[in-house]
Amino acid sequence: MKKNQWLKIGFQLAAIVLALLFTTLVLLMAGASPLQAYSNVLQGIFSSTADITNVLAAWVPLLLATAGVLITFAAGLWNIGIEGQIVLGAVFTTGALRLLQNSSLPGGWIIVIGFIAGLIGGAIWGALAGVLKTFGGVNEIFGGLGLNFVATAFALYLIIGPWGRPGIASTSGTLIFPTRLWLPTPLNVALSPWALGLGILAAILVYFLLRGTYFGLRLKAVGKNMRAAFLLGVPTWQYSMYAFLLCGALAGLAGAVQVTAVYHRLIPTISSGYGFLGLLVAMLINYQAVWAAPIALFYAALNIGGIQLPIMMKMDSSLSGVLQGILVLFVLMVEGARQQLFEKKE
Amino acid sequence: MNIELRHIHKYFGKVHANDDIVLNIPAGTIQGILGENGAGKSTLMKVLSGFIQADGGEILLDGKAVIIKSPADAIRYGIGMLHQDPLDFPPMTLLDNFLLGRAGGLFLDRKAATQNIRDLAGQFGFSLDPESYVDSLTVGERQQLEILRLLWLGARVLILDEPTTGISASQKDKLFETLRKLAKQGMTIIFVSHKLEDVEVLCHKVAVLTSGKLVGEAPAPFNAKKLVEMMFGKEISLGARRPLKPGAKVFELRDLAVEDVRLHLADINLEVNAGEVIGVAGMEGSGQGLFIRACAGLIRPVNGQVLVNNHDLTGYSYHVFKRNGVSFMPASRMEEGLVIGLTLTEHFVLAEEIQGLFIDGDKGRKLAEERIKSFNIRGTPMSTVESLSGGNQQRALLALLRNPLSLLLLEHPTRGLDIESAIYIWSKLKERCKQGTSILFISSDLEEILQYSDRVLVFFSGRVTPPLDVSTLTTEKLGELIGGMGWPESKNEARVHEKKPVA
User: CB B336 to CB A214 under 8 A?
Assistant: First the structure.
């Protein structure tokens, strides 16, 4: 037992080393100095308070997305549609803020309503994937992918059309909201403690939901064996729907954070790929909710650190993406190899 | 083609599925293979048709030793197998199905293939249109299609696995006629079946398998009584039985009719009293599975009513049945019964009523410890179900059932278990009967049926006997009924056999 644990950790470390080696190889092939690239990334993460708060600001939506897909993964669902759910959340938030920005309501209230709207928007988009799956027999991967495209196109339409800036047809985004509709950032940095608190709270709630509640246990049973869960008395399709709704709601909150705390407007790329990144994180941590926070932080840091590359070395910032993706592949591969080699099935 | 099987051995884990099988089948013979479920018939045929490899022994075709590595390999040697469920592709046309298995070039010669199908079909009097889609065909027609396809691919040995299930009487006649014709042409036919009457009218010789061993061979004409003895063994000692005591009616079926793609069961009437045990016998796939699932509300009946404690629950879902005291225990433990990856504790908590939002961990563990003890499960509360042995998984399934229950529906409650486990499980079930729970169970073990049932239903090809009092039954009688002998001529037999009218 103990020996197996160490073996497992050893293999995981090997996966990280392999991922770094592979990324180094990619850098060498691109003709860049790997050491310089890595040190630039690290500097982009740690060199100033602004960098660190940027990392934390990126951590929040990623954490929300990761928490969301942990729920759908527990129910055995591949919620690829999370990107679209983030977009819809952002659209709904923007809509609510636009509707109320000239009202006499205090800014704080409008923001809260905006968050609730975002939550509902994401949940609706999640439920749509769920309905397609449960009642239409459309695999959630295809349904989600389709809905992602629809969501992006919808956002783009709003940005160019009805919500466009007066006088210009631009895809760069809607008008910036007045600062009273910005999520407050008291420390004069890019990070809102409210958003940070929301992200951490979501991760904690999902952890307990999956670990200690009847809901979580039933969700797991549905995810692992739908037939048996049904015979044990679990209303199976309803639980699949709950999973989609919850994941969509969390994704919608991520969208709300992007609008109220980061961009202060709706832009076409509002989801910033945090949905897909959340799927990667969930896979990397083998769906263990405990690790969601630290690994999501690590991935957020890579994202922010990667921004340095185009500035300092005139390289594309996708190096972080390479490392993020490769890491997941190597961890999965190495884990597969370990099981093949050391866990003989009788 | 002459086939010689020499000392074939096949193991699945500890199970010796084929134990030293020696069998010669000369060209032009229709060889019957008889045996109960799990006797090793299918294993032997899979070895011969390349689906699995034997662990020992030799296969000789026309005196030459061959090694058959895959079904594609088998067809190259001229061995074609017709599976019980035709391995075709329903959303494609007959023609495409034909061309799929064909080795060869990049381009398909549709024209030639169409002509070939027409010629072959004409030769045997089949009316199959190459352009029609497979899902428009009846089971019998799909079989014809498969036979033609195998012949077209050059099969000189035809293996048929339970080919007469789910086809109409006229299609069966046509199939038999075709097989006889093929045998005359020198083809070797291997006919795997549990239906004595089919084997009797068709086969030239028969081999009987029991628990992996070849227990006997006989040439036609056959002595049916002797075949039944060989299949089921004759010495069965029965334990003392308690007399049936009448209790309140807990379950009732009125003119129930259920169907799936292959079978149509009709006019089933049954009343079950509290504490009564009803055994359901029959070869696998004769309709028992369909029947028990309809009793559980897992399949919606096409006609008739299902009443639990005098409430009409027809058309309601299994969860409603469950709330009314009905529980179903499936045969496939790991596929339908238990959730791989969850612990015993998690299973017990899942099966109980929800109490609040959070699971009380201590209470769950205590519950698990208690059940593990009282059901004698070798495992801990934290053991995942897949780490348990088959017998312990079965006990866990039993331990998951709620108390009290009105009706317990069991599929093969002791299949694959050692005798000790089986006796233990039945002692637990009997305890429930004493508390007034009725049991309806499917088993292919005649001994188990006769030992534990008060009344017995026998299924054969979608037909059901009325409930038979177990005291009127003997192993021999039961064996014959299961094999399709001694059934009264039914006025609606044609309807029972044939679901889709032949176009």
Answer: no
